[in-house]
Design brief:
With about 180 residues, this protein is mainly alpha-helical. The protein has eight helices and three strands, in the order βαββααααααα. It has a three-stranded antiparallel beta sheet with strand order 1-3-2.
């Protein structure tokens, strides 16, 4: 996750959002990082990624934030007017399948929770919307539970019962659907 400096809006137009999407796609091509889920909000963004090599996440995030910040300043002709981002990115290791499900849901539900859309998949700048696109803008790692028919409904509904139980039920259901 990375947030704008002073919580100012980074993204006000489709062009602004697309600019970060292009940087993200370039970063994924340059670095050994798999993207599972994302959501770009007006003043911050979330990524759920998988890395195999220590240090690769820092290299990837450094490239994304510095490249985006340079392009953001150049487009607005504000080079030298201060930082775009609040600071270094925030990362939290995911240690279980239930945690992975909860984190992906949290990220993909972000625009819905903020009241920007009525259904999470209607937010064009998220992996939930991206998965339904015919022509993809961003390469997403194929994860069965994120591609299941029940995932969109789960992201859009208010949880009933302990989140860990709900998350594990969805994860176990997706594993049962996997071939082999």
């Amino acid at each position: 996750m990375n947030r704008s400096s002073r919580r100012t809006r980074l993204f006000t137009t489709s062009r602004d959002y697309l600019s970060l999407m292009h940087v993200l796609a370039e970063g994924l091509d340059r670095h050994r990082v798999d993207l599972l889920a994302f959501c770009v909000m007006p003043n911050h963004w979330h990524l759920v990624v998988h890395v195999d090599e220590p240090g690769e996440l820092s290299k990837f995030m450094h490239w994304i934030t510095t490249t985006h910040a340079r392009r953001w300043h150049r487009y607005r002709r504000t080079v030298g007017h201060g930082p775009v981002y609040k600071g270094r990115f925030l990362s939290v290791p995911i240690e279980s399948e239930a945690q992975l499900v909860r984190v992906c849901r949290y990220v993909e539900r972000n625009a819905l929770r903020a009241g920007l859309v009525r259904r999470a998949e209607h937010w064009a700048w998220s992996s939930l919307a991206e998965r339904s696109r015919v022509k993809k803008r961003i390469s997403l790692l194929s994860v069965p539970f994120l591609e299941s028919e029940t995932w969109q409904d789960y992201v859009n509904t208010v949880e009933e019962g302990p989140p860990e139980r709900v998350a594990m039920e969805l994860f176990e259901e997706s594993i049962a659907l996997e071939p082999g």
